[in-house]
Amino acid sequence: MRKIPLAAYAELCAAAMIAGSSVVAGKASALRLPLFVSQTACLAVALLLLIPLALRTHKGTWKVGIRDMLLLLAQAFFGMFLFRVFMLYGLRFASAAEGGMMTSLTPVAVVLLSYILLGEKMTARRGGGILCSLAGIAVIQVPPLLMSGAADGPASVTGMLLLSAAVAGEAALTVLRKMLSPRISSLLGVAYVTFFAFLMFLACSVIELLQSGFPKIGAVDAGIILYYGIFVTALAYVLWFRGVAKVPTGTAAVFTGCIPVSALWLSYTILGEPISLRHLAGTALVFAGILLVSGAPERRSEPRSTAA
């Protein structure tokens, strides 16, 4: 019998809640700021925190093997660069309800990728937790889309496709983290991933600046950049990397159900959007799924060996 990793569950839940808040902030960012320039600034803020912390914690231990370096680069490309590009462009075309619905598909994407790349088995309890979580998300997200009548048109379809690609990138980040050597700490991993993503956004932001010039940054815009850099990037990614390293990928997948729930309740708290009975029922089902997965010890499956 294994001890229930309560600390890992708390880290995953907190990281997913912060990620949910990024949907609310991301909608504002997508409408107000140039994508590549703003994300370059966000990552620069995160690096100002991560690099000193990593230097203090990992004195002389920054070196990683070629395989781990390639995995970190892949995490930066799929899980941070492409995820943010697709998410923020998608939020320009899609509504907040569509954005929440698409991020709720992350558990399924994570489970599928973990089965393909890691060979993790699907236990009855884990599968039940995922289904319960998805049912809760469906209760929250589907009725408004059905009641809205006809589709909103090509722009909405474009947004949904972009958000679907963002979900795939988020799932890749989680699964690729499991493939890293255990010698790579969460802090060091996030520092490398953030730095690589910063270089990718920086290259694109140069082109963006040449095309449209330097944008005017107001107090609200600066606040969004600071929030994205400090909380959404530095804090959330460190918490998620720490939690994912301690539990099976299928278990971590269930906690991504907190993302749309967090986005929903923060919209109510911050934006004053109404909450109905279906929101309460959906939230209860999501957390029931989390309890189903995390409520008792389970044996962790051994992943398939990967080429070094």
Automatic annotation (TrEMBL):
Q: Does the keyword Transmembrane apply?
A: yes
Q: Where is the EamA domain?
A: 13-140, 158-294
**Stored Pfam families:** EamA
Leader peptide range in chain numbering: none
The Gene Ontology CC terms held by the record are: plasma membrane
Q: Which UniProt keywords apply?
A: Cell membrane, Membrane, Transmembrane, Transmembrane helix
Where exactly are the transmembrane stretches of this chain?
36-57, 69-89, 101-118, 130-151, 157-176, 188-210, 222-240, 252-271, 277-296
Q: Does the keyword Protease apply?
A: no
Topology relative to the lipid bilayer, per the entry, is: Multi-pass membrane protein
Please state the protein's primary subcellular location: membrane
Where does it reside?
Cell membrane
Entry-linked InterPro entries = AA-Vitamin_Transporters, EamA_dom, EmrE-like
Identify its protein family.
Belongs to the EamA transporter family.
- What is this protein's name? Multidrug transporter
Taxonomic source organism: Paenibacillus durus
